[in-house]
């Protein structure tokens, strides 16, 4: 069965951090952002059927058979902050593969992440851990060793990530002109952000959970959201219902919906504006690295999508940052040294397209 949202309970709890008429009740972060309200809530998921047998309260946790017990699983978990006097649309941030909401909160070298940057611009921010990841790890498929996307045991791969996501050829090298922050400490912080799935990857299930997140955000704010997805999270984004989406900002997604597909028709019917962002070292990436061809194909597919989407009456644009004279960005442009510049570009687009 599907779990009900925890929003009504949690909203009451976080009222304790509301500013009200007493500014001393507000939460102020070190960089000067005044938070009117913040909290954590879970969305979507399901409750398992009871384990066969009768629950024995006298044995409770010591009964390792878990007879008669249930579990809440496969929900999303969202941390949110609403700024005082904020008037921007809420922004829902969904991470990519192997990541969690941590990537939006700061940078590997300790500067402001996009969460704080957009809070300062007046947007409530909602940072999601998708089901089976991070703070939303509970699933009936959990094993001692977390599963990889294809259902096999989790495999380490930090060096492979570094190359595939275009930070440099081999860690700790960086490409010429790279905006990725340098240093051993930075690299350690970045690698420590990576986190495995606790169960198999299920785009439909994750899309359902994110639809529930967006519905809960609408309940809290009364507004539709700017839905910011990254990497594999972009694929989950295409499986999300459109009802509570004001616009989508897809940061180097794993691709766009196939033209003419049900997903394509869904977003076109909803007239959902879309911004696709791509960084550097794609057209000019090393030709002997297989990932270069991968990113070239993804960029082309998103461009083809946007061109047809516009022809069919939609609103979509692909911004390849080097074409805007913004150079040196990897797959993690929101964590790099020019992340504020790119956030400003996103904010300008939202002002023109996302508020319609």
Walk me through the structure:
This protein is 30% helix and 16% strand. The protein is of the alpha/beta class and 356 residues long. The strands form 2 sheets. A 9-stranded mixed sheet has the order 1-2-5-7-6-8-9-10-11, sandwiched between helices. It starts with 6 loop residues before the first helix and ends with a helix.
Give the tally of β-strands. Answer: 11
Residues in helices, as a percent range: 25-40%
| Overall outline | globular
Work out the strand percent: 15-25%
How far apart the termini lie comes to: 36 Å
Number of helical regions: 10
CA radius of gyration is: 21 Å
Major beta sheet, strand line-up? 1-2-5-7-6-8-9-10-11
| Helix-strand sequence | HEEEEEEHHEHHHEHEHEHEH
Instruction: Give the biggest sheet.
Output: 9 strands, mixed
Which spans have pLDDT < 50 for at least 5 consecutive residues? 1-25
Average pLDDT confidence is 88
**Which structural class do the helices and strands define?**
alpha/beta
Keywords:
356 residues, alpha/beta, 9-stranded mixed beta sheet, two-stranded antiparallel ribbon, 11 strands, globular, disordered N terminus
Topology (SSEs and partners):
Layout: H1 7-14, E1 27-28, E2 34-43, E3 46-47, E4 72-73, E5 76-83, E6 91-94, H2 102-105, H3 114-120, E7 125-129, H4 158-164, H5 184-193, H6 203-221, E8 225-230, H7 232-238, E9 245-251, H8 262-269, E10 274-278, H9 290-311, E11 316-320, H10 339-354
Parallel strand pairs: 6-7, 6-8, 8-9, 9-10, 10-11
Antiparallel strand pairs: 1-2, 2-5, 3-4, 5-7
Helix pairs in contact: 6-7
């Amino acid at each position: 069965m599907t779990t009900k949202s925890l929003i009504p309970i949690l909203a009451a709890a976080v009222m304790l951090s509301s500013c009200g008429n007493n500014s001393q009740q507000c939460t102020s972060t070190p960089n000067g952002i005044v938070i009117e309200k913040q909290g954590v809530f879970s969305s979507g998921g399901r409750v398992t059927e009871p384990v066969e047998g009768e629950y024995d309260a006298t044995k409770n946790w010591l009964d390792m058979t878990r007879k008669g017990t249930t579990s809440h699983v496969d929900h999303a978990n969202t941390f949110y902050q609403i700024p005082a006097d904020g008037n921007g649309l809420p922004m829902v941030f969904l991470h990519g593969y192997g990541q969690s909401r941590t990537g939006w909160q700061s940078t590997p070298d300790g500067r402001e992440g996009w969460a704080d940057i957009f809070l300062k611009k007046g947007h409530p921010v909602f940072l999601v851990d998708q089901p089976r990841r991070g703070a939303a790890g509970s699933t009936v498929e959990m094993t001692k060793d977390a599963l990889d996307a294809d259902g096999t045991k989790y495999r380490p791969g930090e060096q492979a990530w570094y190359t595939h996501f275009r930070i440099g050829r081999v860690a700790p090298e960086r490409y010429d002109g790279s905006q990725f922050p340098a240093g051993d400490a930075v690299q350690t912080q970045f690698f420590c952000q990576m986190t495995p799935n606790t169960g198999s990857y299920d785009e439909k299930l994750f899309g359902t959970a994110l639809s529930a997140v967006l519905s809960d955000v609408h309940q809290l704010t009364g507004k539709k959201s700017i839905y910011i997805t990254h990497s594999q999270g972009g694929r989950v984004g295409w499986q999300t219902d459109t009802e509570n989406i004001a616009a989508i900002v897809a940061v180097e997604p794993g691709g766009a919906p196939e033209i003419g597909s049900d997903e394509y028709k869904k977003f076109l019917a909803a007239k959902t504006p879309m911004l696709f962002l791509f960084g550097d070292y794609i057209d000019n990436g090393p030709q002997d690295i297989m990932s270069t061809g991968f990113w070239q194909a993804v960029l082309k597919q998103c461009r083809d999508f946007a061109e047809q989407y516009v022809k069919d009456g939609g609103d979509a644009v692909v911004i390849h940052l080097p074409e805007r004279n913004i150079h040196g960005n990897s797959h993690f442009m929101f964590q790099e040294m020019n992340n504020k510049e790119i956030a400003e570009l996103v904010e300008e687009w939202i002002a023109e397209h996302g508020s319609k």
